[in-house]
Amino acid sequence: MTINLPYGLGPVSVELLLVVLPALVALVIFILVFGGDKAKKQTKRRIERIKAANNKEMTPQEIVSIRRSNTDSEIAFIDTLIKRLLPRPELLRLRLASAGFNSSLGRYLLICLILGIATFGGLRFVSFIPLIVAALFGLFAGIMLPHAGLSFLIRRRRNRFIAHFPEAIDLMVRGLRSGLPITESIKTAGKEIVDPVGTELTGITDAVRLGEQLEEALWDTSSRLDIQEFNFFTVALSIQAETGGNLAETLANLSDVLRRRRQLKLKIKALSSEAKASAYIIGSLPFVMALLIFLVNPGYISDLTEDPRGIFLVFLGLFSFAVGAGVMYRMVKFEI
To answer: What does the pLDDT read at residue 7?
Structure first.
């Protein structure tokens, strides 16, 4: 189907308009959102110059983060839409913070919008895919792909934290045995240990320096990280603050327990690797075979995309595949 454009521009396809117009809208929003950082970048550069001149201890990121921002976007209209229409935005902010994603909620939602429109537009260029199917795949890509990417970043950051956290505890133990208080020991470990452990420990000491109690800062970080190893550390410090005792010995024992716990996780991962490899191979076979059939004989598989019964069978097969993948995932997942 085509329509005639005004001013003598000639006819144009409706499908092309359905692809181009949303892409232009997303591009305008992208320019508005990401273009609003010019003043912030200039301010950051000025802070860096002042820091280099005065050689102060705090970094520009720490100076900027002293004043907590309550906005999710640089544009007031988008910020209002997020607060009114997005369900549970605080949960999404917590996930972004857990992943170490140093960006606003508005930018994350814009990435979701661009992925959805790009997927929809790409599928619409394939003539045999119906409009409703392309829209559903675009909606799925706009919601699930960023969510899966964020989950991957959170999982990777947690694994790195668990790998380096015992070293940080050992450094705290040495500081305590040399006579330093626990806050100074945490500060020293935050400077010496790599990210993300160093970043989180530095954030705790910054919160204490700004007037927050150590126990409150630990529990805030614990709720954001959602890591059992750090929960053990927080509980140990909380109990020691109430009952007293040899904190250095307690943390030394905790470091040994965390190392043994990590060794057990690696052993379970090695034992379940064969089952995971089998699941990956079996799970990829339907998609690989569908692609090969489409490349060899497109007409043979066209009924699955043109006939309503075929579309129903495709969705039924994807649902069954998702259920089977979930069951296999639960079979190879062990909680320690």
So the answer is: 43
